[in-house]
Amino acid sequence: MTDIDPTRPGLGTWENDVFDECVASVRTALEEGYRHVDTAQAYGNEDAVGEGIAAADVDREDVFLATKIDTSNLGYDDVHATARESLERLGTDYVDLLYVHWPIDTYEAGETLRAFQELADEGLVRRVGVSNFLPRQLEEAAAVLEDPVCAHQVELHPSLQQEELRAYAAENDHYLVAYSPLARGRVLDDPVIEEVAAKHEASTAQVALAWALDLDRVVPIPKSSSEAHIRENWRAADLELDDEDHERIADLDRGEREIDFRGAPWNQ
Ligand code: NAP
After folding, report:
1. Closest atom, ligand 1, to C-alpha of 131
2. pTM (two decimals)
3. Active-site residue 43, yes or no?
C-alpha cells in the first residue's frame, strides 16, 4: 500500500480548476517526482486531477491520491454515494486517503465516520483522514473509527505553527498535512524568510516548505499551476536549514489564519 512520503511535499490543487491547466500541472508534478496529490469534491477538479494522473508516466499504484467529502455530503448515505461519484470522476477504483473536509454542516461523527469506515472496509478507500478538526473532535473520531486516522489536514505555515496539533499528531502517530503552507503567498515576502532564503541562495517558498518538512510528522502540500513553481517547490526538500534558521522561523508564529470564517470549528 502506498503511503505518504513525509520527506517530500505533495501537490495541492485548490483553485486549479481550469481543466487543461490542472491536467498539465498534475502531470508535470508526477513526472518531476511528486507522489502525493490532494484534491476535494469542493474543488471541482477531480476529473482533471484523474486525467493528469492517467496522462503521467507513473503507475497509479505509486501515487498517493487524496480527496475530501464536501461538507454538504457528510450524511451517511451521501458519503457512500458521493465517494463513489468521486472515484468515477477521478477515474480510479480507490483513493489512498479520504478526508472529512470540515466537521461542520452535515457532519455527525457517528454517522459520517461509520460510512467512512465502511468505505475503507470495502477497499474503496485505503485510509481515512480528517481536516480542520479540534483535538476533542479527533478524540471523538478515534472512538468511532476502527482504523486509526492516517492524516489530519490543517492550515500550517510560519505564521500559524499549530504546536498543539503537531504534538497531538506525534502522540497519535498520524501525519499533519499542512495546507496553505505558503500562507497563500503571504510568506513569500516575509523579511525573515527572505533573509534565510538569501543565506541559502534559495527561494522564500523553498524556505517555508523546507521548514515544514523538518517538523515532525508534517507534510506540506503547496498548490501551484506554474511549471516553474512546481519544480522549485519539489526541490525544497533538498534545502537544509540549520538551527539558527529554525529559531528565527519559530519566532514568526502569530496564530494568523488565511482560511477563517465564523462557522469554522475554532470559532464555535
Ligand atoms: P498555498 O499552497 O499556501 O499557496 C498557493 C499560492 O502560492 C498560489 O497562488 C501559487 O501560485 C503560489 N505559489 C506556489 N508555489 C510558489 C512558488 N514557488 N513561488 C511563488 N508563488 C508560489 O495555498 P493553498 O492553495 O491555500 O494551499 C495548498 C493546498 O492545500 C490547496 O491547494 C488544497 O489542496 C489544500 N487546502 C486544503 C484546505 C482544507 O480545508 N483542507 C484549505 C485550503 C487549502 P501559482 O499557482 O501561480 O504557482
Report:
1. 41
2. 0.98
3. yes
